[in-house]
Structure formats: C-alpha cells, structure tokens
Design goal:
Mean pLDDT: 93
Distance between the termini: 39 Å
Low-confidence stretches: none
Number of domains: 2
Order of helices and strands: EEHEHHHEEHEEHHEHEHHHH
Oligomer: single chain
CATH superfamily of the largest domain: 2-enoyl-CoA Hydratase, Chain A, domain 1
Length: 267
C-alpha cells in the first residue's frame, strides 16, 4: 500500500505530504497515525533537519476523521465499548499531537484546502500556518456529536483566544481564509499556486539561522504558554548559557562584525 505520508527533502527542509487524496487525506487508521508519529520521531533525531512543512495531496489539507469508519465502528473509532474507544484514541490519533506539537524542529502547515476537525487540529499542531485562498477551516466535531479528541481543545484557544475558540467549537461552523487570517489562525494567505513557495520561503529564512538557537527558542515559546514567568526566566538563563557556548553563536557574531554571510555548523 502507498504510504500515508510522502516525505521529501530539500537540504535542511523536509516536506511531509498527507497522501490519501481520494479520501481527502482523512486520518482513518491507527497505522496512519503511527506513520505520522514515526516520521516525527525520526526527524527529531536528525540534527540536520532545519524546518518541516506539512501539507496535503490533492484538493484537501485533511478532512479530519473517517465518517464511514465512525458509522461502522472501524479504524480509529473501532471497538465496541467506551473503554476500547478511549484506548483507540490514546494509542492512535493522540500520538500525533504528542509527536508533532512537541517536535523541537520548527513546523509550517501549508494548508492547501479544507482543514476540517482533526485536520484543523493537525494544522494547529504546527508552529506557523500559511493558507491557500482555497483553504477552509472548521472545528466541526460537535456537528457529528463528538468532542475534539486529538488536542483541539488545548490548541485552538492558544492560537485564536478562548472566545473565538468557543465560537468555532460550539457552532462547528466553517470559516474561510480571510476570517482565519483575521483571527490569527493563519499568518498568511496566498494564491493556491504560490502556497508551497510561500511555505518554503519562510522555511528557508528559519533554516538560515543557527539550528540549536532556533530549537531552543521554539522550546521557550512553547513552555511560555503554561509556565510562570520566574520559571521561564530560569529556563531562558539556562538555554542562553547553552547558546553562548556554541560555535554557531561565535560564527554569527563574527559574521555580523565582519559584514559577511555566516556559515553555521549546527554546533
């Protein structure tokens, strides 16, 4: 069977493409969840990766869960009892936010089309979101009588604020790219044909910086969302000590003083 993820690499930039266009890239099985998790784990151990782009094949980014699977109690939602379904979520779809959201490498969602339910939450797991003019967004779990089971209740308020998150989650309504831009869900909207170029351009700017400093900065920003200021300051001091001790810090300072382009080694 064709892998759910198509993985491409261009230097330090990796593109992960959800590759089930015939199913609008819906996440249907535990095996697909495990594939995404395994890719993230592998990337996290590769110090040469500077940035990751996540996108979808075909017309959709990710249509979320498999409605037929929900009806037939197969795939991720398989199992007859509540306890079995709970374990299916914990050992399936919930592995993705734990792997993708916690990845130290910067991530960019290039949202090429509808990002619905778990598809929206997948985009929210990324650090930066760039949308095509054809993108649509919906936290639509309530429309099928369920709750956000993959971390959306944690992710959405942090991105758009509690009031907007409640509006989207309780109505299940679909919004377009203009509203997504206005509420801060995405940082840029571009023509469909320019989407990957726009994501690559951001990735290239990130990749041009010292990779250890980039990863430490991302971790500080992540921790700042649920940590006291005093605790974050302690972390910042420790991370700063690590950064000051790198060769790349010295190279960055020397290059700036010598008015030349730096050459970073990731050390």
């Amino acid at each position: 069977m064709t892998p759910f993820l198509n993985i491409e690499r261009d230097g330090g930039i990796v593109i992960l493409t959800l590759n089930r266009p015939e199913k609008r890239n819906a996440i249907s099985t535990r095996a697909e969840c495990e594939e995404v998790e395994a890719a993230c784990r592998s990337l996290s151990r590769d110090d040469s990766v500077r940035c990751v782009i996540v996108t979808g094949a075909g017309s959709a980014f990710c249509a979320g869960g498999d409605l037929k699977g929900m009806r037939d109690k197969t795939g991720i939602t398989g199992g007859g009892t509540g306890a079995e379904i709970r374990e299916s979520y914990r050992r399936g779809i919930q592995m993705i936010p734990l792997a993708l959201y916690e990845l130290d490498i910067p991530t960019i969602a290039a949202v090429n089309g509808p990002a619905i339910g778990a598809g929206l939450d997948l985009a929210l797991m990324c650090d930066i979101r760039v949308a095509s003019e054809k993108a649509l967004f919906a936290e639509s779990f309530v429309k099928v009588g369920i709750v956000p089971g993959d971390g959306g209740a944690y992710l959405l308020p942090k991105v758009v604020g509690m009031s907007k998150a409640l509006e989207l989650s309780l109505t299940g309504e679909t919004i377009g790219p203009a509203e997504a831009l206005a509420c801060g869900m995405v940082s840029k909207v571009v023509a469909p044909e320019a989407l990957l170029d726009a994501a690559r351009a951001i990735a290239a700017k990130i990749a041009a910086n010292p990779p250890q400093a980039v990863r430490l900065t991302k971790r500080l920003l992540r921790e700042s969302q649920h940590t006291r200021l005093s605790t974050l300051l302690e972390m910042s001091a420790a991370y700063q000590a690590l950064a000051h001790g790198t060769r790349d810090h010295r190279e960055a300072v020397d290059a700036m003083l010598e008015k030349r382009a730096p050459s970073f080694e990731g050390r």
